[in-house]
Amino acid sequence: MRGNGTRMAAAPQYFNSSTKERHRNRKGAELWDIRWGLLCSHPADYTPVCTTELGRMAKLAPEFKKRNVKIIALSIDSVQDHHGWTKDINAYIGESSVQNLPFPIIADEKRELAVQLGMLDPSERNKEGLPLTARAVFVIGPDKTLKLSILYPATTGRNFDEILRVIDSLQLTACKKVATPVDWKAGEDCMVLPNISEEDVTKLFPKGIHIKALPSSKKYLRFTPQP
Amino acid sequence: MRGNGTRMAAAPQYFNSSTKERHRNRKGAELWDIRWGLLCSHPADYTPVCTTELGRMAKLAPEFKKRNVKIIALSIDSVQDHHGWTKDINAYIGESSVQNLPFPIIADEKRELAVQLGMLDPSERNKEGLPLTARAVFVIGPDKTLKLSILYPATTGRNFDEILRVIDSLQLTACKKVATPVDWKAGEDCMVLPNISEEDVTKLFPKGIHIKALPSSKKYLRFTPQP
Questions:
Q1: Which of A13, A29, A86, B157 is most buried, most CB within 10 Å of its CB?
Q2: Active site residue A50
Q3: Where does the record place the Thioredoxin domain (chains A, B) (predicted)?
């Protein structure tokens, strides 16, 4: 069973290791002052798609930092492989003089975290016949629960614009009484949550709302500019 | 555990019901002549984000048809609710005179499929305290195995451009010896699979390849125009 509950139970043990950093150097009183997490596993070091993915993650590090998201990669390769491969990744993104990546790569050689978090892909195996880590994406909220989970096929590189889009939605909806509609991007109109009474709407959404008239006469399609 | 294996075991029983349609009216000898599947669950009928999502699915039905993808929605609401809500969805997308959607919505009132496929979200419950279906996306290949799995948060509408992007990659890589790099879109350069020998490259990729020189001297970053 892959319901959210399983992941939520598994995630905190790893992410608690960053507890010390959680209250550091943040402005504002909203949820942004506590850290979010992005954990991405990849099948193997020194492989084509993974190199383009970790290169993009490195380039996007400032975007994740801006959103207070700690990013971490994971595979079953060794620390030595991670160090060697890091040079290739930096060369690929045109940063040959840089020695490190702006995020850690976990060397899960014994597959302990991969098993715990359900990241192994039974259909992708190494030369010894052992399963490789899947191309997984987990976004963890400051409450240490799983918010987004994606398992991409081994053939298909991830879309980091989509990951950032969902994080923007998660951070907005964590502190405002809205949800974001299909294909939403930061700055676009949002939807008022169904449990907000008509009386509270004016107070909560001073920019106003637009209610779409529907055959059922139910008033649940309430749009508002992004609060 | 949410590894691919679990889903793969669960998916075929439902998707086998479309066996009859699998060989119908398709041209070409590639994998497109067998059907793909997209199964999307949503928390509840008559709710804001779900309405925008199913409206977008209806608008995109020709895109899925073009890719030979059978699309299906699922929630724990009744058939009667699905019929009433369909009118709202069509009104929302400006198709008030249309009575149906171009895809079925499964009425999984007893939560049988939702439990079988791990689609219930323990943190989202109805008035009776029973768990609702999560905002899940499953893409199933013609071999009846799970290819892509996404669990979006209840607050965040899906991105159907991303779903189509992954389907394009899956259908391409199912019949060509390439993978697609991070953020790839249809028509952009692809990557030669690591298991293709240098000798086979010329034969398989007549448009040529570009090998990126790397500090490790390994030749795994091989780009080629989309075959």
A1: B157
A2: yes
A3: 5-172
